[in-house]
Amino acid sequence: MSSLGVTIIEADVLVIGGGPAGIAATVRATEASARVVLLDESPQVGGQIWRHRTREGLPASARTWLKRLDASGARIMRETSVVDVRDDGDALTITAERNGVPVIVHARAIVLATGARERFVPFPGWTLPGVIGVGAAQALLKAGLSFAGKRVVIAGSGPLLLPVASSLRAAGAHVLLVAEQASRRQVARFALGLLTRPATLVQAARYRTSFMGTPYRLGEWVSAARGDSSVREVDITNGTSTRVIECDVLCAAVGLVPNVELAQLLGCAISEGAVVTDDGLRTSRAGVYCAGETTGIGGVELAIVEGALAGVSASRRETDARLVARRAALRMTAARMERTFAPRAELRALAKRDTVVCRCEDVTLGAIDPNWSMRKAKLYTRAGMGPCQGRVCGAALEFLYGWPADTVRLPSAPALVSTLTADSSSANQGA
Amino acid sequence: MTTRAPDSEGDRRVTIVVDGRPVEVAAGISVAAALMENGVHAFRRSVTGAARGPLCGMGVCHECRVTIAGIAHRRACLITVSNGMEIVTAEGGAP
């Protein structure tokens, strides 16, 4: 239904986020619920890992799930950003914006599949154009950026580094270095554990061989970047010695952090930065389910299992015991991975007093007192008050000073006033 | 300078206008990719005037904000180019 430029939708199950978890949740929910709606911010569903413009290049499992989604009968709304989620007692209401037009969805159940973002740890020069994330490089490549002939340094952590290096090389980039901040000892211990999972090992080996010629260094990280209109050179260190590498692009991010803002708005319990769920992927709030990276970083295989479980639960069916067991096993591997690739303490000393921490408001490290909280930093310096709403500096300050995320306030993303007022007028009509 | 998408969309191309300059790019690519391909470094200026460009590439950081079709602060990484699209960056005086 659409009136006065507002789209109003009634749904049994609303899935927010169209990555693997959201797609699996949508497909499974449509098996038992008539009206399933999937919202996603991007021009195409698939999330970050299955980001695509055409499906030919996608892995087989992605193509299969996308086909199942096509056939599911779910209503899919792309390029739609959620700005508010509300629990009205008997129904959940979300307000979103699509090309400047407000969208209001009333739903019996919501599945949050909002994924993860990269953790950026500030260092001198990290605000220069040309300094991007590691996943960001993959995202921009898939969005059509040509890396051909570009000199690229990748400095980060975790299993994302190798596939990104591999695809940048395939696109013609000169990948000069892949620096993994985790120590050789930590990674070796983790690799031994992989022997019990041959598929993963084969995959890792394939990535290694596909970028032979590119050094893959453990226990090294970027400590500074320099340039004028964009990045020109970077310092790579192992803590004792530092060398300078000239490059056109620096990909620097240290692992991933779950996107829990919408769950926070709904009052869902959060622990260690991730949404708390039970075996049925129920959160602490009735009618609200959560799946994929938002419940803790675990990769695509786990996201699919969790999405399927959440879709089943949200449409009020019996939980699948086999999937629950599979989830538990994958969670254990994910937990080991998190420990192995946790950001090292030395990264806390990279930012100097004049290094910008909050990029939206240009707040420097020196302006922030380590004895404050995130709330105080917001009040005194505006850190975290800009358009990204603390999504970048919040995770950085959590790592630097151990500050837990502050409460989330509306709107969760910048929105037009017309979208926010559409929300309140519809609440009146619905009474 | 022109750009080519790495995978299909065929060879379809569109013309966008970047800071008043017509530029031919592959159809289906993001505004962020199109601008970076064409040498734009300063998508926006920060509150203290520093040049900023894409960081996260996925709609989180808001660093790639540009003016598209007269609407300020659009996230270039989330929007696909279309024929005739007018884009103004900090290099062309966008807010």
Question: What would you say this structure looks like, in words?
Answer:
The complex is a heterodimer of chains A (431) and B (95). In chain A, α1 (20-30) crosses α2. Mean pLDDT of chain A is 91; it is low at 426-431. Chain A has 431 residues and is an alpha/beta fold. Helix content of chain A is 32%, strand content 25%. In chain A, the strands form six sheets. In chain A, strands 1, 2, 3, 4, 5, 6, 7 and 20 form an eight-stranded mixed beta sheet that branches. A five-stranded parallel beta sheet of chain A has the order 9-16-10-11-12, with helices on one face. With 95 residues, chain B is mainly beta. Helix content of chain B is 7%, strand content 29%. Chain B is built from one helix and seven strands, in the order ββαβββββ. Chain B has one helix at residues 31-37; strands spanning 13-18, 21-26, 44-45, 51-52, 65-68, 71-75, 86-88. In chain B, strands 2-1-7-5-6 form a five-stranded mixed beta sheet, covered by helices on one side. In chain B, strands 3-4 form a two-stranded antiparallel sheet. Chain B is globular, with a radius of gyration of 12 Å. Residues 1-8 of chain B have low confidence and may be disordered. At the A-B interface, β9 and α3 of A face α1 and β4 of B.
What's the structural blueprint in terms of helices and strands?
The complex is a heterodimer of chains A (431) and B (95).
Chain A: E1 2-3, E2 6-16, H1 20-30, E3 36-39, H2 60-72, E4 75-77, E5 80-87, E6 92-98, E7 101-112, E8 116-118, E9 131-132, H3 134-142, E10 151-157, H4 161-170, E11 174-180, H5 184-194, H6 198-210, E12 216-218, E13 221-227, E14 231-237, E15 242-246, E16 249-254, E17 256-258, H7 261-265, E18 270-271, E19 274-275, E20 288-290, H8 300-314, H9 321-340, E21 356-358, E22 363-364, H10 374-381, H11 393-401, H12 417-429
Parallel strand pairs in A: 2-3, 2-7, 3-4, 7-20, 9-16, 10-11, 10-16, 11-12
Antiparallel strand pairs in A: 1-2, 5-6, 6-7, 8-17, 13-14, 14-15, 18-19, 21-22
Helix pairs in contact in A: 1-2, 1-8, 3-4, 4-6, 8-9
Chain B: E1 13-18, E2 21-26, H1 31-37, E3 44-45, E4 51-52, E5 65-68, E6 71-75, E7 86-88
Parallel strand pairs in B: 1-7
Antiparallel strand pairs in B: 1-2, 3-4, 5-6, 5-7
